[in-house]
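It is worth pausing here to work through a concrete case rather than discussing structure prediction in the abstract. The textbook approach is simple: state the sequence, then state the predicted structure, then interpret. We follow exactly that order.
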Amino acid sequence: MRKNIHYTIAILVFSLPALIVFSIVVCYPVLNTLYRSFFDWDGFGKPEFIALKNYFKLFTKDSSFITAVKNGFIFAGELVVFQIGLGSILAFLVNSTKRDRLRKVFKTSYFVPVVLSATVVCQLWLAIYNVEFGLLNKIFEMMGMDFRQAWLSGKNTAIFAVAFVNAWQYLGIHFVLIYTALKAIPEYYYEAAVLDGASFFKLHRHISLPMLGETYKFCLIIAITGGLKGFEQMYIMTGGGPGTNTFTLTYHMYSA
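Step two, the predicted structure:
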């Protein structure tokens, strides 16, 4: 009993510095922002208490806020589907590659976009999305499809096109996380399943996916938070346009 008490005290003592820093850096700013949201204040004069008027104004008179919320969920949803889905497929394929040199090439190439600046990546995709000479429209032309699009100026395509740029750039993070977790699974699980006649798909369905549960939870958090706070791509590629069609919560805050 005494040993357990000492163990609990030790945990609290070692956790205390981190809790103090977290409270100062995260909790205090959040609570202070919430408190100030009940006031009308320009940052210089005396704050005037107005209760919930700021929230009524936000939800009833600011149409761009609703657009920003909707776009945030669209952005996050596209990141979840593309980054986790394709990241898993690539991780499984690279893990099954027998040649070490080829595996290293794949791992490096998938991670290269992550280390590039957002400006470089956005300029690359601005060229790809270009209406006149962009690679994407040229591919559709070569396939004989009349599908020329103004990807970044169309109301129905702009947010999806911008979100895809973010998803493509940071796909490598999810690939590395899933691949690393996949390599940590003991080989004897797969060897036993192969002896029982399991196929490639059954191996990953019944062994890999269940054991990657915690990794997928972490990837899901990264993808959702990354989508909800998306900013660089809108700022560089569309300026929030056309109109407010690519506003997200972060960009809405910036433009307010």
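Step three, interpretation. The first helix runs from residue 2 to 36. The chain has a mean pLDDT of 89.
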